[in-house]
Amino acid sequence: MQANMIRKIAEGKDAPLELKPSVFLLYGRFFGYIWQHRFKLIIGSSTIFVLSFLQVLIPQITRYVIDNVIPNKRFDLIPWVALTIVLISLLQGGLNFVRTYMMSLVGQQTIYDVRNELYQHLQSLSMSFFENQRTGTLMARLTQDVDALEKLVTTDVVEIVAETFTFLVIVIYLFYADWKLTILILLTLPIMVYLTQFFGMQMRDSYRELQLQGAAINNHLQETLSNIKLIKSSANEEGEIDRFSQINQKNMQANLRTVQLWSAFAPIIDFMNNLGHIIILAYGSWEVMQSKMSIGELTAFLAYLNQINQPTKRFSKIINVLQKGATALERVFETLDTKPEVAEKEDAIILPEIKGHIQFENVDFAYNNSGKNVINDLNLEIQPGMTVALVGASGAGKTTIANLAARFYDPIQGKILFDGHDVRDVTLKSLRGQMGIVSQETLLLHASIKENIGYGKPGITDTEIEVAAKIAHAHEFIIELPDGYDTIIGDRGMKLSGGQRQRLAIARALIKNPSFLILDEATSSLDTESEYLIQQALQKLLQNRTCLVIAHRLSTIQNADMIVVLEQGKIIETGTHSELIAISGRYAYLHSMQFPQ
Ligand SMILES: Nc1ncnc2c1ncn2[C@@H]1O[C@H](COP(=O)(O)OP(=O)(O)O)[C@@H](O)[C@H]1O
Ligand SMILES: [Mg+2]
């Protein structure tokens, strides 16, 4: 059931609202994280216990003053009483400091752990997960949800523990003092428990909705701000403003609904508390008038009632917070429980340095389990040092083959071998570490040019970066930039031209110096002039390694050792350029289209 639900979520289906893991299970699991910091937790909570006892003490002093000091005119005792109260107050102050500080430490450290684990887990998940999740939703998990937990631990858990304990101590004392009166006070309790449960469930639903709406805002922002050019070029600013305002309104409505529930609940609980007060006042006065109870005792009772009213009032607030926390926990654990589709085996070995013998054996592949095969019974052998070119119409499956080689996905049938090792038997790091990919979309970060070229290679020197940039013909344009190699190139390299981005990607691949190189339409965004320069750079890049080259422009692959022509995921022709021209097949046709005589 759980696995199924996670799968659904991973596939991007609607979150299954019908399934609600119990609040206790969620908190039990969360407590595991808090327990990591048990030393501080124990110090923090012991102060809570002492504080509860101190709170019970003060009404006792009042009772003593009213019943003993005043009637007996013991003036001499008044300074002592005052001193005791001052001392207790000072102690309370000190302990409160320790309590708040310790519990905040526990809270902050727990949240730090959860957020790190979440990020670490996200990094381990496969491409398919990210294709089916919206970035904004994932961001909401790491920000919104984790923040909700933070508040829970740092402030509210402290209150919950403190209030519950004070409540228990007082109730036990009251039973001891006058059990009949205590039962009367507690009469309202079952009603309150029922109400709390009822509202709690409603609130959890409304917090779920609120969370979804928050994520929707994130998604909208993420998508529109990163595609601002599309919006501007389509002159659709107003359309997006409308769309945002609708999402924003839904968010407001979800917020209002939680406020509505909450504001109905709090007064009901207040009313129940007041009922308790009336009972004590009526019954207590009766007992005092019959001399069954002293005035001091009644005063103490009323003070205690006030004190347990505080917790019951807060219980309602706490329920609110717990339900909010439960929705956050639900989402955090859901993400943590998602298993990567492409996972390393427990006993995965480190792929030794490869020579570059790469084999596809009877490989079938589909992107979704139900979808139709994108790759059909593919058999391909690449000898070390060979350059193999993949050719075919767009959608034929060229990029998919590159994705399979990099193990971004696993085939549903057949296997892929690197120097005889099945890619599923080796660690992902050792596999991808020996592989360079330069693709259609050039992947750049908001960082300096230097950092982008040396990405993933800590300790690389400036000279090595410059040498690579020179070979990739990037050096010329880099030194023209205001800060040279230290120029920040904007999100996804927004401040560069397509050709410049591609040259940086080539320099990055040169730095990595991989045994196996994949070029996926690496020259597609170059103009003719820079293409000529890049061709030379690429020739250098292709030397002394095994390469898989995907190119739309056939001129770039005429020198390949083997050309593989694909159609709908199947190999239909293989051979060298001249062999394929000679048989006048599909390749010869594509070639004649691009180079009409
Ligand atoms: N992430 C994906 N999820 C689902 N289908 C995909 C995905 N990527 C590609 N496809 C589909 O797989 C087929 C092959 O795509 P691709 O390998 O990218 O083609 P090519 O690189 O030859 O143009 C296409 O029909 C495409 O729609
Ligand atoms: Mg492609």
In short:
This protein is an alpha/beta fold.
Structure notes:
The radius of gyration is 35 Å and the shape is elongated. It starts with a helix and ends with a helix. It has a 6-stranded mixed sheet with strand order 6-7-8-3-9-10, with helices on both faces. Strands 2-1-4-5 form a 4-stranded antiparallel sheet, covered by helices on one side. The longest helix is centred in the middle third of the chain and has 53 residues, at 237-289. It contains 20 helices and 10 strands. Helix content is 63%, strand content 9%. The chain folds into 2 domains: 2-13 and 20-337, ABC transporter type 1, transmembrane domain (ABC transporter transmembrane region fold, Up-down Bundle), CATH 1.20.1560; 347-434 and 556-597, P-loop containing nucleotide triphosphate hydrolases (Rossmann fold, 3-Layer(aba) Sandwich). A hairpin with a 2-residue loop joins strand 9 (562-567) and strand 10. Bound molecules: adenosine-5'-diphosphate (ADP) and magnesium ion (MG). Magnesium ion (MG) binds at residues 398-399, 520.
Estimate the helix proportion, in percent.
55-70%
Q: What is the β-strand count?
A: 10
Q: Ions, cofactors, ligands: which are bound?
A: adenosine-5'-diphosphate, magnesium ion
**Gross morphology:** elongated
What is the N-to-C succession of helices and strands? Answer: HHHHHHHHHHHEEEHEEHEHHHHEHEEEHH
What is the CATH homology-level superfamily of the largest domain?
ABC transporter type 1, transmembrane domain
- Counting helices, strands and paired strands, the structural category is alpha/beta
Total domain units: 2
Helix segment count? Answer: 20
Per CATH, the architecture of the largest domain is Up-down Bundle
